[in-house]
Amino acid sequence: MSTTHENLSSDIIWEVVRHQNAYLVKRSGAGGVQFSRDPLNLTNKHSRKHAGFVNPQAIGINADSNTVAVTTKLTQHHNKPAKNHSTSSYKSSTPQRKLYKSVVNSTAKNGYRSDLRADAVARASAIRLSQVDKKEKKASKPRGKKAQKSESS
After folding, report:
1. Each residue of 37-77: pLDDT tens digit?
2. How many CB atoms lie within 10 A of CB 61?
3. How many other CB atoms are found less than 10 A from the CB of residue 74?
4. Which of 100, 111, 126, 128 is 20 to 30 Å apart from 134, CA to CA?
5. What CA–CA distance (Å, rounded) separates 129 from 96?
6. In terms of pLDDT, which residue wins out, 40 or 148?
7. CA–CA separation, 120 vs 142, rounded Å?
8. Handedness of CA 51, 125, 92, 66 (dihedral sign)
9. What number is the average pLDDT over the span 22-47?
10. Is the residue at 149 inside a domain?
């Protein structure tokens, strides 16, 4: 869905589509909260700042099979949907600090949406934590009087 046109601003596009679009999820049971399913939305909030399909520059961080995929929207190919996105994948063996540094480099340091730096790192961190296998807890050994009873019997 390419919504960037040379004669329309992003603000006009947002005002037209903000009440109904393919990514909007309304939850009336939770007090009328609105969420977004946009893959280029880091916080899943339905807002102008985070809407990836409206902004000419957008970042999406999603989980693939045991990898973290960082997708950026390319501004020079706004009318070519097949070339509109650039994706970088990071394996689970990639160190966390290297992943976070590359996310920061792709968002803020290269002058590309520095306002989304904290959200991008938080999302990458949450995805990475969800992919890590949990350690099993060791069985607790009896202490004190229970240990003395088990030794004597």
Report:
1. 999 999 999 999 999 999 889 999 999 888 999 999 888 88
2. 27
3. 13
4. 100
5. 10
6. 40
7. 45
8. negative
9. 91
10. no
